[in-house]
Specification:
By secondary structure, the chain is α/β, with parallel strands linked by helices. The chain has helices spanning 14-18, 36-47, 80-89, 108-112, 124-132, 151-157, 186-193, 223-233, 236-239, 246-253, 275-282, 298-301, 307-316, 417-420, 428-445, 459-466, 473-489, 500-511, 514-522; strands at residues 71-76, 95-101, 137-141, 160-163, 169-170, 183-185, 215-219, 259-263, 287-292, 325-330, 333-339, 346-356, 362-374, 377-380, 384-385, 407-409, 412-414. The structure holds flavin-adenine dinucleotide and NADP nicotinamide-adenine-dinucleotide phosphate (NAP).
């Protein structure tokens, strides 16, 4: 969340115009749902006056390489970390960057994770399109490193490889029955409604027959849980104005879901969702939000003076409207067992109490009390998890590639979720990528990275021999234009293409040599 210091701001408006993610909004244009941010902003500087901070942000001198020569870097993964890493590298005119992604479309979780009802967040794509248009930048999209091309083949042609492959899997829940049909991970569910090509065939049902209770239970109360809950409870006519994937929209239109219960294993003060997301939920006029503090009365459970407790207290005092769908924020609750024959029909939920351990960490401890909640769908939103990356070390407990500030070894680096684990916002990956690239530049300058043994120009031929339908920048731009064109006719920002072959066909039309198009034109 961004705070603007009202005491030193001269109100010129330049930051609001320049911010690529629209994260800075003039107070005069706040909607009623955004009004709480006025107080939050003002209060921030009361609590953290930053009196020791200079008003002007220092502009650091741009580092320059001392080693002479031309250098090529491969970036694997075109999500936020990959694009920020490429941007950082391209500040050095002697470095050129090739960015690989296994999908024919870039931007990682900005395309396939950020919720469709958060279109303003997707404006970061404007910044990414500036990064990819810089001289020295090339895309190899639809190319999976580790399958279509190996690390050894890249290492032979590039001075360095930066892996920014994210965290594609999810943490298990580990309770009996969580493998029943109807129980799925938020990772799958999010990919499904966001048009990730790998997730379109999931058998996700929300009809009355599969879920007569009309209830979904979500485990975990991070921002991903809130995203999933909003999508499940949102008015489909509103979702139809977003870039939500087409088939899921059809399923959501026919949905029988009336209530989404979010289970947080700890208390309200430990909830993983962030204040801006809670403000957004509280300001949603079309939904009831109920706060369930279990055996503790809300005035005791929500007694804190922090912003989160205050907002939750305010929500707990609202009267629900029976005509609206409901999201229940339930605390001190964990699933103990998933019940069902052939399909989820209920979840046994255990009550917890809090205990602070020797390290001062507040932990949930089961009280032994349980109750059964009927449901036809259980979503585990307990965090993402990185998968092993071919030819790199892997820490199975944390799901990351062990590294020192991004350096795996001289010449091989990581940034983003594969480096630090699945936490943080889009912007967090910028400082994270900067730290990694700093190590890479240090290694280049120190002579720790030898010259590659093969000519870098041969990489395109190698990739095309394995993946003839590889998509380059022009190809991606053609897919982007086509999605926006289809969206414009339907009053939507874009209609996502989810079929990889169709993406490749559209991309191929844009990259076919000009003379071939002219010849075809002559008939
Ligand atoms: C559901 C969800 C919603 C979110 N919403 C927000 C939000 O609203 N605002 C916000 O600030 N942050 C949000 N975040 C967090 C943000 O998306 C992440 O911080 C960010 O995407 C992590 O960037 P990354 O580049 O490390 O990984 P990713 O974004 O996952 O990118 C990794 C890329 O690597 C590619 N890849 C993987 N393996 C290979 C391979 N072998 N070869 C080639 N390519 C490969 C993938 O296809 C992918 O494109 C959200 C996260 C999730 C999970
Ligand atoms: N709009 C946005 O800005 C946005 C949207 C989506 C995601 N993101 C970011 O993306 C990152 C990932 O989000 P996330 O929601 O996946 O992860 P998260 O913030 O780490 O939340 C994970 C949740 O799962 C719970 N949990 C973990 N293991 C559990 C278990 N075994 N049983 C019950 N509960 C369990 C955690 O509880 P404990 O706290 O008790 O461990 C926590 O509530 C976050 O940094 C998030 O802020 C941002």
């Amino acid at each position: 969340m961004l705070y603007v210091d009202a005491a030193s701001c001269v109100d010129c408006g330049a930051c609001a115009t320049a911010c690529p993610a629209d994260a800075i909004v003039p107070h005069t244009t706040l909607t009623s749902a955004q009004q709480p941010f006025l107080t939050l902003n003002a209060e921030y500087f009361e609590v953290f006056p930053h009196s020791d901070r200079s008003i002007l942000a220092p502009v650091h001198e741009q580092r320059r390489l001392t080693r002479k020569g031309l250098f090529r870097v491969a970036v694997v993964g075109a999500g936020p970390a990959g694009l920020y890493a490429a941007d950082e590298l391209l500040k050095h005119p002697e470095i050129s960057v090739d960015v690989f992604d296994r999908l024919p479309t870039p931007y990682g979780l900005v395309r396939a994770g950020v919720a469709p009802d958060h279109q303003h967040t997707k404006q970061i794509e404007k910044l990414f399109s500036q990064i990819e248009s810089q001289p020295g930048f090339r895309y190899f999209l639809g190319v999976e490193v580790g399958k279509d091309v190996s690390q050894a083949e890249l290492a032979a042609r590039y001075h360095a490889i930066v892996y920014t492959v994210g965290a594609a899997s999810d943490k298990p829940l580990g309770v009996p029955g969580d493998d029943l049909p109807g129980s799925l991970s938020a990772t799958d569910f999010v990919g499904w409604y966001n048009g990730h090509p790998d997730k379109q065939d999931l058998p996700i049902r929300m009809d009355a027959e599969s879920n007569p209770s009309g209830r979904v239970v979500i485990v975990g109360n991070g921002n991903v849980a809130l995203d999933c809950a909003r999508i499940l409870a949102e008015d489909p006519d509103l979702l139809a104005r977003t870039d939500v994937s087409d088939e899921p929209l059809g399923v959501l239109r026919e949905s029988n879901i009336r209530e989404v219960v979010i289970l947080g294993r700890r208390g309200p003060a430990q909830a993983a969702f962030t204040v801006p997301e809670l403000v957004g939920l509280a300001g949603h006029a079309g939904l009831n939000v109920i706060v369930d503090t279990g055996d503790l009365p809300p005035e005791r459970a929500l007694a804190g003076s922090d912003v989160k407790s205050r907002l939750l207290r305010e929500l707990s005092e609202r009267e629900p409207d029976p005509g609206k769908r409901t999201i229940v924020l339930r605390f001190l609750s964990s699933p103990v067992r998933v019940v069902g024959e052939g399909r989820v029909s209920a979840v046994e939920v255990g009550r917890n109490r809090l205990r602070t351990d020797e390290q001062g960490v507040v932990r949930a401890v089961a009280t032994g009390e349980t109750e059964t909640l009927e449901t036809g769908m259980l979503l585990r939103a307990v965090g993402y998890k990185g998968l092993p990356v071919a030819d790199l070390p892997y820490d199975a407990a944390t799901g990351v590639v062990p590294n020192d500030r991004g350096r795996v070894l001289p010449g091989v680096y990581v940034a983003g979720w594969v480096k630090r684990g699945p936490t943080g916002f889009i912007g967090t990956n910028k400082s994270d990528a900067e730290e990694t690239i700093e190590q890479l530049l240090d290694d280049l300058d120190a002579g720790a990275i030898p010259e590659p043994v093969s000519d870098a120009s041969t990489i395109a031929a190698v990739v095309r021999s394995r993946q003839p339908a590889m998509v380059d920048l022009a190809g991606w731009q053609a897919i982007d234009r086509e999605e926006k064109r289809r969206g414009a006719t339907a009053g939507r920002p874009r209609v996502k293409i989810v079929d990889i072959d169709e993406m490749r066909r559209i991309a191929a039309r844009s990259t076919r040599p000009r003379y071939a198009r002219l010849r075809r034109g002559r008939g």
